[in-house]
Model the fold of this input.
Amino acid sequence: MRFDLPPRGTLTPNDAVDPLPYYYSPWVGWLYRHRLQMGLDLLPVGGRRILEIGVGSGVLVPTLTKHYAEYTGTDLTLAGGLEALVSPGCRAEFRRADLLRDGDLPADHYDAIVCFSVLEHIDDAAGAARSLARALAPGGTLVTGYPMVSPLMTRAFAAIGFSNIDDHHVSPPVRIAAALGSVLTPTRRVAFPPAAPVAAAIYQCSAWTKAS
Done:
């Protein structure tokens, strides 16, 4: 599944810290786009229903709705005009939802869930992992992606103009991976740089499955 970035000007940021402009940057944009492609490469072929946690400005909506018959996109806040991004033939729904609030997502429902650059923002990694596992259908696949959380990344974000990233990145990769591993089975992991360990990857994506 190839990530297709919508043309510049198509999308609207969903809040003041939406990273949308970075996708079109002539230098850091490559990494922003590449991290999503790493995750998309972990999605299995097939499946009907997909859930995207953290839909944001809708960067992934055209790509995901092209490959799934039913798409649900959730976020704490939603940008306008997301329906216009849906590929023909896909039944899509957008709604505000809190990953930590019971009842916001149906149980045992989605064949695939994608959750990119969300879990590092949630202090209760164990609670987030349980909610994701609950929403995933038996035999389904969860694909997650999250960056390094460290002083090095703090300096890197400051260099691109995001000076208060420590106010947003509160869960490091080791904690996230441990929480997910307590409720789901890991199947594959990719990282940038390639083969970097959990704590040292600038960005990493992992696939997890739920027992049938």
About this structure: DSSP finds six helices and seven strands in the chain. The two ends are 25 Å apart (CA to CA).
